[in-house]
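Researcher: Please predict.
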Amino acid sequence: MSSAPSRPPVFRFAPSPNGELHLGHAFSVIFSEHEARNVGGKLLLRIEDIDTIRCRLVYAERMIEDLAWLGIDFDGPVLRQSEHLARHRRALAALEAQGLLYPCFCSRAEIAAAAACDHPRDPEGAPLYPGTCRSLSQSARQGRIADRKPYAMRLDMTAALATAAPLSFWEEGIGPAGEHGRLPAAPERWGDVVLARKDIRTSYHLAVVLDDAWQEVTTVTRGHDLFHATGVHRLLQHLFGLPEPLYHHHRLIGDETGRKLSKSAGDRSLRSLRQAGVTPQHIRQFFSQ
């Protein structure tokens, strides 16, 4: 009896519509396209629009136009995260039922004040959450919620790690410090991370893990700036019983000073380059140099 044919690998490009796409995005999607086609895989598009304050429909529409202009041929329909928030809420409820989440009522200013200058910091340089709300009694938590005090939901990292053996991930590419192969995940470096923000009842970490699994992504391609976040993602995959994808982190595109390009800094958009006469072929040739 012949075995069933193996399914093709699945890759994704997942921009946030909080500004115009720039050269850094172009490099990332071209990189993902190249990796997918090299192994006969699929490339999916996901619009990560959970941030209702910063994300705009017009940016999402322009992103799709820019990607079509670049000549990127995606497989399957576009997934918009904002249309799948119910799944995120169900996943949060499951973690809460296991006693792995707690509400955090602290403001950013309060967290900064509670963390001394020599306080441990996460991989991005921010002070680790000092655990102020972790020790609140159930009645104190319920009282603050009843008083409509805004709160985020944090993962109790110590409790979550107690459910798992040491976690690792496979790096297909080269990490920011030359890392490659099977690597320790080390989610504890992030402390009690936020899994549901105060303004939106989800977060980047939660959404990306759930939606990668929903889209059956087998290889996650993304920039070095997200390399260390893999630790949190591997822990969430364990907690939800989700499959472990491969990871392939790539270099970042910077300006002439070496600074990473960003939408918030107003770096030149693909739309403006197109209007100036730059062609998709010019962009692809620039990255191949």
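Model: DSSP finds ten helices and ten strands in the chain.
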